[in-house]
Amino acid sequence: MEAPTKAQILDTALQLATASSWEQLRLCDIASALNCPLSALYQQISTKDQLADAWFDRADQQMLSHCYQGRSASERLYLAISSWLNALAPYQQQTGQMLLYKLEPGHVHLQAAALLRISATVQWLREAAALSASGLARIGQELALSALFVGVFVHWLNDRSDGQQQTLQLLQRKLSAGDKLGLWR
Question: Is the Cα torsion angle 97, 103, 106, 107 positive or negative in sign?
Answer without folding.
Answer: positive
